[in-house]
Amino acid sequence: MTASSTGRTAIIAGNWKMNYGPREAAKFVQEIQPALSEALQAPGSPLCILCPPAISLAAVRAVLDIPDAASSAQIELGAQNMYFEEKGAFTGEISPNMVHELCTTVILGHSERRTYFGETDELVNKKTLAALRHELRPIVCIGENEQQHESGETAHIITTQVRASLANLTSEQAREIVIAYEPIWAIGTGKAATGEIANNVIRQIRQEYQAIYGAEAASVVRILYGGSVTSDNIAEFMAYPDIDGALVGGASLKPDFINIVRNSRQVRH
């Protein structure tokens, strides 16, 4: 696996959302794994993370762990959410230590969690710190909605979310997390931001992060773009120096996800 010209290894993560139960998930991974693993052998390939629903994590883990299968060393498994407590009377939740048994990564603060389930920056921060305590790589999502975007509030929203969702990290933790900029107005709408727009906001995120945790942390933290990413537009995003990969939604449910991974191999300018 080769790092980009920035020195940061790119990440392409597929968020399956509420799709594919255990049987469907296992079948889909069996179908795409040979070609996906082959695509990940090429120089400049990203780290690939599959994020099925919680109920399907074990089924996908079993496929990835099959002996003598096509190499899956670069295909990691991630959860879509978790709670911050280790155990207790929290019906329906999964804990960080449970996630850690199967996964390397967990998505936190996705816009759908914030919008539909009322998750706050403070809650996302608690989950982030819990993930790090359990040696999980958090992908912490931030982004503005359409009204905020249209009214020119993007910079304010980004600053607020970075400072609150990513508070209280140690210097080592500040290097380990991943941030995903996902403009809510571009998720599931087909309205992908342009590479220039995404890079400008991600540059602001990096500058804000630098103000909190210093230049070294800001230089190594990986920041992804998420919002109607396809195999046709991924190369545009990856051409920009501050964009370190993508959090892919609907397109990760199709074999074309392999082409997203292939087309993400892009020399930065």
From TrEMBL:
Instruction: Say which domain of life the source belongs to.
Output: Bacteria
Q: Name the Enzyme Commission number(s) assigned to this protein.
A: 5.3.1.1
The record's subcellular locations are: Cytoplasm
GO molecular function annotation: triose-phosphate isomerase activity
Q: What Gene Ontology terms describe where this protein resides (cellular component)? A: cytosol
Any one Pfam family here would be: TIM
Q: Which reaction does it catalyse?
A: D-glyceraldehyde 3-phosphate = dihydroxyacetone phosphate
Top EC class for this record = isomerase
**Any one Gene Ontology BP term:** glycolytic process
What pathway or pathways are given for this protein in its record?
Carbohydrate degradation; glycolysis; D-glyceraldehyde 3-phosphate from glycerone phosphate: step 1/1; Carbohydrate biosynthesis; gluconeogenesis
Chief subcellular location: cytoplasm
- Keyword hit for Kinase: no
Residues given in the record as substrate binding sites: N15, W16, K17, G188, S228, G249, G250
Iron as UniProt keyword: no
Q: Which CDD domains match?
A: TIM
Which keywords does UniProt give here? Cytoplasm, Gluconeogenesis, Glycolysis, Isomerase
Q: How does it assemble?
A: Homodimer.
PANTHER family under this entry? Answer: TRIOSEPHOSPHATE ISOMERASE
Name of this protein: Triosephosphate isomerase
Gene it is expressed from:
tpiA
